[in-house]
Amino acid sequence: MAGESDERAFGDIANKLLFENERVRIWEMRLEAGTTGPVHKHDCDHVLIQISGDRMAVVPEPDSQSEYKDYMEADVFPGNYFFVEKGGIEAARNVGKEDFHEIVVELKE
Q1: Could you tell me if residue 62 is inside a domain?
Q2: 7, 40, 65, 78 - which has most CB atoms within 10 Å?
Q3: pTM of the predicted model as reported, rounded to 2 decimal places
Q4: Which of 61, 16, 8, 53 is nearest to 35 (CA)?
Q5: CA-CA distance, 104 to 4, in Å (whole number)?
Q6: What range does the domain containing 47 cover?
């Protein structure tokens, strides 16, 4: 409802902040096979760069503003990259048999 605050506790978008300046934030994401990361909110457009793994899923919250509004699974291809617009509220789930590793570059506005 209008005027209500979102009282959820969001986690970081990845495990480790590697670098930050006035224009970008660079994160490292590692997720063991069979695990799910915390629900997090993307306040910035970002680029995902896959390093290793075999299969990942996005588990969006009902109020996610991302183009990905439904649960989605996809194969991982090391070296693959994706531009994603801000607005997603989701968790990452490693549905594969291998540990997942990627770099996330947030583009500050």
Answers
A1: yes
A2: 40
A3: 0.89
A4: 53
A5: 30
A6: 16-107
